[in-house]
């Protein structure tokens, strides 16, 4: 597979200087960006200010991943369960995501990043956000650098349900159902499973993120709140990842 291991951003010497093995950089890193509300509360700020502070963390994580030559970076931006939050917060998050895209897509495009969205396009997602999403996906579709997947109105269960429904609409017969067939109906069929999942904020759960895809991912939980997350923390997580023994049910 072309460039399966690492992107050209990854400079081996620089990666070694960080104490990392350039041959074992995870191909796909996925982040549950959690703790914005608590970060804000700690400072006597509104929850939404915590989300706003998460923007810098996000950009730093993307740039850190590019420097390491990570091929796929995914982030959990809004879950199918997050609709249950107060209307004001939901409305803020919708507009915030639109503004982040508008503010950073050109810069990411210039860096060769392909941006894609994983999740349900339902009636609750504002049309003006959908328009910016579509433009961004189209703008960056031809890029061959890192693929940055934003999981938005995403739920792991919803993804599986949507895949099964689409498969049935296609009339796939029971005999043809396999892991490979089902995967073809996922939101991003070409996306490899995450090698490493990082969750910030000290919660030890998955919260409906990439349920199928993380069957054999290495999980790292850090107490840091997302707005404080920086590329150093990404490097630290990769360092820990590199000493893990991935067995996939076999023997070492
Ligand atoms: C994560 O931060 C961002 C989203 C879920 C959109 P939270 O808003 O969940 O922050 P906490 O977990 O309440 O601190
Ligand atoms: C997971 O965080 C969703 C996102 C980061 C977008 P939550 O804050 O929604 O998860 P729970 O409610 O703590 O499980
Ligand atoms: Mg949370």
């Amino acid at each position: 597979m072309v460039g399966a291991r690492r992107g050209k951003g990854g400079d081996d010497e620089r990666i070694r200087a960080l104490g990392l093995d350039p041959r074992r950089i995870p191909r796909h890193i996925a982040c549950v960006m959690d703790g914005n509300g608590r970060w804000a509360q700690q400072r006597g700020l509104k929850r939404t200010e915590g989300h706003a502070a998460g923007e810098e963390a996000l950009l730093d994580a993307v740039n850190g991943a590019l420097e390491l030559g990570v091929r796929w970076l995914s982030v959990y931006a809004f879950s199918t369960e997050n609709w249950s939050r107060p209307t004001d917060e939901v409305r803020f998050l919708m507009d915030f995501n639109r503004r982040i895209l508008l503010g950073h897509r050109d810069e990411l495009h210039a860096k060769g990043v392909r941006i894609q969205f994983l999740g349900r396009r339902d009636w609750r997602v504002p049309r003006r956000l959908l328009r910016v999403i579509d433009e961004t996906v189209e703008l960056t579709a031809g890029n061959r650098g890192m693929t940055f997947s934003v999981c938005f109105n995403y739920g792991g269960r919803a993804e599986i349900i949507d895949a099964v429904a689409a498969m049935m609409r296609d009339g796939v017969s029971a005999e043809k159902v396999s892991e490979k067939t089902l995967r073809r109906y996922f939101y991003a069929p070409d996306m490899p499973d995450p090698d490493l999942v990082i969750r910030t904020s000290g919660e030890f759960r998955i919260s409906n993120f990439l349920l199928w895809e993380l069957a054999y991912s290495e999980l790292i939980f850090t107490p840091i709140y997302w707005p404080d997350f920086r590329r150093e923390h990404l490097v630290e997580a990769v360092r820990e990842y590199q000493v893990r023994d991935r067995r996939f049910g076999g023997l070492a």
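The mean pLDDT is 96. DSSP finds eight helices and six strands in the chain.
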